[in-house]
């Protein structure tokens, strides 16, 4: 899957994987050595994240059911909690710096394309 910001056409992730089962959500990105450029994880459902047992920082994009951005956590370091976002229905985790690089903002509408 691929995720794009519809406001500015920026590609947020070209290789987005879904974590849509209990076990996939439980594992998330834990214990991975890194997150490759262009890769991301879409966690469904999700309103908050943590980075325990992770070895790298991430950016977290919180979206509602319409894939509208309702919250952002930039450069969330290992062993931290992200903010709880009541409006969020899912989150997209990407490599640290992607939010700034793609100029993603609260209110932006995203599109996820399945291959």
TrEMBL record:
It comes from the Bacteria. InterPro entries: DUF192, Saro_0823-like_sf. Signal peptide: none annotated. PANTHER family: UPF0127 PROTEIN MJ1496 (PTHR37953). This is DUF192 domain-containing protein.
